């Protein structure tokens, strides 16, 4: 097991009717004026916005609204949000939404201290100063409610890159699974698949310690990963039957938060993240591609590409997650589950032309994380995309 630092400082307030605690939580952090960041309409439709503002008013926290954050948020939006934060002289940001809204809020929180947000992203260095971030989660999947990353797209450059820094970890995240009872199935599935891939990006870096007993170097982390993966799979199956099932919503939400808060990568040297690099290259160029759906297409193709190079961990995955025997069967079972949940399995879903592949390959190769488990050439990356055209 490699050395690691585990530090997940976000306070989680989880469960039914917890949104009413938002005001008290912010007040306890000495917040006086906050920028409320929301997306299109989900925050309003779910009633979250009304509950949050009532709670803030009750606690004497002033607020101003910055709405209209779109999925795969753009740099342009972040810059508008930074201007709004300056204009209202806020001392914090409060996101109500899914990963896109939370990431945009985090970017605004950091951006108020930066001369040029994108220049900081390009340095690949963590930020050390940001306004305190708070979240009310309405869609589970990304884990952004409990981690230090903000993923933003620079549309003119077609680059979707993250900014990170411990100061971007939300101070408090309110997770009331009731807010997700009306999430349509395709978004539920995309979020669940995204959360699975966060765990899997780490998991496949596991290394055998003793072949004779099947004991791995990161046995504890791998078993935690397997538990999280099984919980997500079972919860998605339950939610496909009944999207209003509170228990399944709650379990999916909690598993997704743990999928990307540092735990699933502990001892695994930061995991792999090739599929995420390839998905970010895809949705950086085509922002209409939902992140979780892009991963549903790309991740199994990456598995197919590399599973023979690291057979022990892929065989373990096949056995413990899907109850099948071989690495290839594990890849097939993953594809079947994604397709049973209605996720796309080809890039043609978004009419991506083959002529875009060289640009996506070039973009993907600029990610430092690419190919940590199995080194990948430009030809290999081309194959991963081409296989699922
Ligand atoms: O725009 P609104 O009205 O809010 O609607 C959203 C959006 O259309 C809707 N939605 C959210 N809550 C809902 C709801 N619809 C009905 N009921 C509710 N309760 O869902 C749609 C998709 O929302 P979005 O926030 O885009 O989805 P997601 O949570 O999957 O976030 C995706 C973004 O997060 C980034 C992705 O790259 C992408 O930009 N990621 C962030 C990560 C992080 N910060 O750690 C890691 C991830 O790997 C990922 O890269
Ligand atoms: Zn993801």
Task: Set down the secondary structure blueprint.
Layout lengths: L10 E4 L7 H7 L4 E6 L3 H4 L2 H12 L2 E5 L8 H13 L4 E6 L1 H13 L5 H7 L9 E5 L11 E6 L4 E6 L7 E4 L9 H19 L4 E3 L4 E2 L2 H23 L4 H14 L14 H12 L5 H16 L4 H12 L4 H14 L16 H9 L12 H10 L2
This protein binds 5,6-dihydroxy-NADP and zinc ion.
5,6-dihydroxy-NADP (NZQ) binds next to helix 5, strand 6, helix 7 and helix 11.
Protein name: Alcohol dehydrogenase
Keywords: Oxidoreductase
EC number: 1.1.1.1
Account of the protein in words:
By secondary structure, the chain is α/β, with parallel strands linked by helices. It has two domains: 11-178, Rossmann fold, CATH 3.40.50.1970; 184-387, Dehydroquinate synthase-like - alpha domain (Dehydroquinate synthase-like, alpha domain). It contains 15 helices and ten strands. It has a six-stranded parallel β-sheet with strand order 1-8-5-4-2-3, with helices on both faces. The longest helix has 23 residues, at 219-241. The model has no long low-confidence stretch (mean pLDDT 97). The protein binds 5,6-dihydroxy-NADP and zinc ion (ZN). Zinc ion (ZN) is lined by residues 142, 194, 197-198, 276, 291.
